[in-house]
């Protein structure tokens, strides 16, 4: 997912008090800017339940190179440098709880849709509604 959506999801997990359900998160940087984030979930998740549009489930057969343990977000300047946003040693978990992650992503997606929804004009005083 995009870096700005991932930040919103992380903030949501923290606000809900569910940070303990968070596993490792890998970031991808391009041109010195954070572009994408990858939440690691258990490989037994078959992807049959659709994810909100702001997230992509890579599914079986897809892979992502895992950065070395000592690769924090502040190191390297490669065009597509992968780095740990949150390493497994920080969370003591490899994988994020899929149900919790899906709920946080769904909440961020719903808020985004509400923000983009057109608003109804307010009737002027004395005008019929």
Q: Would you mind describing this structure in some detail?
A:
It is a single chain. The protein has 129 residues and is α+β, with helices and mostly antiparallel strands. The protein has one domain (3-116). It contains 3 helices and 3 strands, in the order αβββαα. It has helices at residues 3-15, 88-91, 98-116; strands spanning 25-30, 33-39, 82-86. Strands 2-1-3 form a 3-stranded antiparallel β-sheet. Helix 1 crosses helix 3 (98-116). The mean pLDDT is 80.
Describe this structure in a few short sentences.
The protein is of the alpha+beta class and 129 residues long. It is built from three helices and three strands.
Write the layout of secondary structure elements.
Elements: H1 3-15, E1 25-30, E2 33-39, E3 82-86, H2 88-91, H3 98-116
Antiparallel strand pairs: 1-2, 1-3
SSE arrangement, N to C:
HEEEHH
Q: What strand line-up does the widest sheet have?
A: 2-1-3
Structural class: alpha+beta
Low-confidence stretches: none
Give the DSSP E fraction (strand runs of 2 or more residues). 5-15%
């Amino acid at each position: 997912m995009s870096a700005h959506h991932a930040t919103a999801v992380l903030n949501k997990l923290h606000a809900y008090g569910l940070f303990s359900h968070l596993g490792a998160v890998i970031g991808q940087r391009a041109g010195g800017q954070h572009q994408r984030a990858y939440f690691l979930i258990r490989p037994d998740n078959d992807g049959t339940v659709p994810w909100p549009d702001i997230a992509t489930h890579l599914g079986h057969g897809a892979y992502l190179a895992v950065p070395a343990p000592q690769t924090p977000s502040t190191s390297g300047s490669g065009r597509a440098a992968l780095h740990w946003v949150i390493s497994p040693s920080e969370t003591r978990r490899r994988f994020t709880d899929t149900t919790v992650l899906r709920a946080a992503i769904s909440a961020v997606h719903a808020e985004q849709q509400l923000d983009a929804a057109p608003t109804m004009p307010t009737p002027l005083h004395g005008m019929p509604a």
